[in-house]
Amino acid sequence: MNQGTTDPLPHYPSDNQSSSYIPADKDTEFLQRDELRPIRIGLELLKPELIQKEEHIESTIVVFGSARLHEPAVAEKALHAAEAEAAQAPADPVRVQQVAVAKRQLELAKYYDVAREFSRLVSSTCQIDGRCGYVIVTGGGPGIMEAANRGAADVNAKSIGLNITLPHEQCPNPYITPRLSFQFRYFAIRKMHFLIRAKALVAFPGGFGTLDELFETLTLLQTGKTESVIVVLVGRHFWERLINWQLLVDYGLIAQTDLNLFHYVETAQEAWDLIARHNGVPTR
Known about the structure:
The protein is α/β, with parallel strands linked by helices. The protein has helices at 28-31, 37-54, 72-88, 93-108, 110-126, 144-154, 187-195, 208-222, 236-242, 245-250, 268-279, and strands spanning 60-64, 135-138, 159-164, 181-184, 198-203, 230-234, 262-265.
């Protein structure tokens, strides 16, 4: 007789039986009830944690940036397309605005290459001799996130993607290590996973999502909830135009010393050197 501990296959209800007969852990409709939210939150926290442990992920670097920024060749093609459309109706303000946006996005497209180079540099330095330290983790989407995952894939290294279910369809980019590609329902649990193993947050130009994660991390640092994360902002000109940090100091809303919670860099090498020094990691 088989003495194994494998659970027997459940017998699901026939047409004349209630769904109450389905075992609770197999009843997907039951698991979606509002009252089951604490269970879902616990499972969403636990599943990625266990898988990352199984994959021997020791530490991570979070890379954030716009999903709308693409590599230079793609951005240049988009500009040409916008210019061609505008040429057909030069008085159309919408098309004129589209050309202006496309030009600015082409200016920022260089950061796709910087993010890719940064990830390639970190991954080739830290994922050696079977170790999985400073593994790149992104939001799993396109743009800057794709670039970071792609840089790790360039050197056959692992990288993580933490995707989120949204009203509009969002697919993980193809460069994430498949076993480390996760999908979350709750933003709060996703945020926890970004920072559980993080040694650094590297923020490239981005929108609401990037700012959300940046200010979340700065708040944790300011309040002493975390001390291990170094915040690196790539592209000083962009960030200083976007956020008037000194204004917050001048109005007494933050302390002058709070401006030491983040650092500016321009290149991939500068970013990695700063993170390595902060964490005592030898560079090569």
